[in-house]
Every structure is written in C-alpha cells, then in structure tokens.
Design a protein that fits this description.
single chain, 12% strand, binds pyridoxal-5'-phosphate, 12 strands, globular, Aspartate Aminotransferase, domain 1
Length: 355
C-alpha cells in the first residue's frame, strides 16, 4: 500500500440495483414506478425556463417545502428536502447519530444503513428479525444511540403496527428515531400522526417510488422544528444548493397533482394483490407485502438460478446474496402487462423444473 493510501477513508460502497438498457426489458429490480410522472410534472419540466438555469436555485427549496407542508398539514419549518431520500438519510445519520452507543437497525433491511454507519464511523448493532421476518419491538428497548428502520421494511415488504412503533418511541425518548417510509403510500399506515407527540421522531419519504420520479432525485423528512433545524445546519455545512430548480418545480407539481398520485398508487396496489394470487398458484411463498414489491421464495427452484434465467429473458428482478435471504427474489410490481409477461415466463419455467 502506498503511503498516501494509508490515510484514505476506505469504505465498502452500497451496491445499487443495476440499470440495464434494453428496449425490450421488463425492469422489476429497483422498485421504480412503472407509470410516467403526472401531467403537471411534465408541464413544470417544460416551463422551467432554460434561461433561469444560469441562476442558483432557492437554497431553501421553499416552493417544494410549502407544497409538502400543505399536503401533510404541518408547518413548513417541519419539512426538510433533499436529493432523494438517500441524501436525506445520509444527512440524518450525520446529524443525529453522534453517540458512542450503537445505532439500532434490523439485520435484514435497506442495505444502505450500514454503509452510512461505516462511512461516518457510527457504531451500530443489528437485531435479528424473527423467523417470520418481523421486527421485534423489544429489541429496540435496549440502550442505543438512535434507531432507524423502514416501515414497511425492505426488502421484506412487511408493515409494523403503528401501536408497536409508538411503544418503541415511548421507550426511546432520549434518542432520535427515524422511520423510513419509502413505501408507505402503497397501503401502509404512516407514523406522521405521532410527530406532534414525539419531537425526536423523524419520518423520511421519497418521490422515487410512489411519485414516479426516481430519475429526478427528491426525498424529504418531516419532524419537529428542532430536528429540522439541526438537519438544515448539517445540509448548509455540506452543500447549500442540493435541490436543482428543475427538481423543486417538478416536485411541487407532483404534490399538487394529488388525484394522479392516488390513482397511480391504487393501480399498483391492485396489481400487487392480483400478483400475490398468481405467485401463490405457482407455489411461491412470501411475506404479505404492503409495498410495490413482493419478496418471494420457491421451495423447489433456487432463487439465484431463477434470477439468471429471468435475466436472460431480459426480465430483471433483484437478488441479495446475504445470508437468510439468498433464497428470495424481490420482484417490483410493474404494470399488469409487465407482470403477465413475468408470470408467462414463470409458468413455462415451472413446467421445466417439474420434469
Ligand atoms: C428506495 C429507498 C430509499 C431511497 O430512495 P431515493 O429517494 O431514491 O434515494 C430509501 N429507503 C428505502 C427503504 C428505499 O427502499
């Protein structure tokens, strides 16, 4: 190792799902929305005057913050926005997880959490999900330096009852508790009503899944004005202009197009419930998803092999090599037509492996 390398901050980066580029592909591997953004978003993108791009954006992203505050019925000083929820989460780790005690998150969860913990040198501990992949609330009653988990959890898709989240909060008044609600719009209950009672609760959301805007990179957090102030202090110490003019305008338009958003979510929920029945008929087993994906395993076909066979047919799903879940595939809910193509493939495949 060269001398200079000894002082390099070495990290093992997060591996994002692949972004293949085939015209005929069925992309069910990164939980994107299969539908286009709302008409208002397209309009806003056209209207963001090209000549305004020579100017810096509003560092406070007020138009977007106000739209979100209105939508969630909170004050604008309770809203923080960032470049995708990954940015919001990274800022939150940096701002709130600054204790010598370990931050707690499940052993099976969004695989970026341990990467940020390593990057920022935050100690962490990962309580094991139970055998049905459920978070055990009592694991989060132990002493800690902060708590984070998604609800519903990823990649399991399972929702935790709001009552249990409340119990976790009652046991953790002295640390920041972050609930990552990336998938909450697909039929789960939000912990937002608890924000007024717990000034240490931060809810993180994204425009990438339910709002069809993964490509634009918009995420946000809602919490007490105190939490949001600390987040902004960290953001302004890092990069004042995180949100582009385009993202601010299009994001605000997406929030205003509430009917489109609700219709899109309803369609995905419908397709998901139908997909569950189809998967069951094919012999797959899976936790009951409240998200835009299903985490499925099959007793007689190894996940990795099925993953490669699907890939050859340009049907992309996600496989995680991690212990306990390497027999599972995470399948994003696409359009009905995309899912029909997936099931047609699986039916044929099922017949071959039974022979
Ligand atoms: C997709 C996802 C994110 C990141 O979303 P972006 O807004 O696209 O950065 C964060 N947390 C969870 C649990 C996710 O699934």
């Amino acid at each position: 190792m060269s001398e200079w390398e000894k002082n390099v901050r070495k990290v093992e980066p997060y591996t994002p799902g692949e972004q293949p580029d085939f015209t005929d592909m069925i992309k069910l591997n990164t939980n994107e929305n299969p539908y286009p953004p709302s008409p208002g978003v397209i309009q806003a993108l056209k209207e963001t005057a090209a000549d305004s791009l020579r100017l810096y954006p509003d560092p406070a992203a007020s138009e977007l913050v106000k739209a979100l505050a209105g939508y969630h019925n909170v004050d604008p000083d309770q809203v923080f926005v960032g470049v995708g929820s990954d940015d919001v989460l990274a800022m939150s780790f940096l701002a709130f997880f600054n204790s010598k005690k370990p931050v707690l998150f499940p052993d099976i969860t969004y695989s970026f959490y341990d990467v940020w913990a390593e990057l920022f040198r935050i100690p962490y501990h990962r309580p094991r999900l139970d055998d049905n992949f459920r978070i055990r609330k009592t694991d989060y009653f132990q002493e800690n330096g902060g708590i984070i988990f998604p609800n519903p959890n990823a990649p399991t898709g399972l929702e935790m009852d709001l009552k249990e989240i409340e119990e976790i909060l009652v046991h953790n008044r002295d640390v920041v508790v972050i609930i990552d609600e990336a998938y909450v719009d697909f039929g789960a209950s939000s912990a937002l009503p608890l924000v007024s009672r717990f000034d240490n609760l931060l809810i993180v959301r994204t425009f990438s899944k339910s709002r069809c805007l993964a490509g634009l990179r918009i995420g946000y957090a809602i919490g007490s004005p105190g939490l949001i102030r600390y987040l902004n202090d960290v953001k302004y110490s890092f990069n004042s202009y995180t949100m582009s003019r385009t993202a601010i305008a299009a994001g605000a338009a997406a929030v205003r197009d509430q009917n489109y958003f609700e219709d899109t979510c309803a369609k995905i929920i419908d397709t998901r419930e139908w997909a569950k029945q189809e998967l069951r008929k094919l012999g797959f087993l899976f936790p009951d998803s409240r998200t835009n994906f299903i985490f499925a395993t099959h007793p007689s076909c190894p996940a990795e092999q099925l993953f490669s066979e699907l890939r050859k047919a340009h049907i992309f799903v996600r496989h995680f090599p991690q212990e306990r879940i390497r027999d599972y595939l995470r399948i994003t809910i696409g359009t009905r037509t995309q899912m029909e193509a997936l099931f047609a493939f699986l039916q044929t495949y099922n017949r071959t492996i039974r022979q």
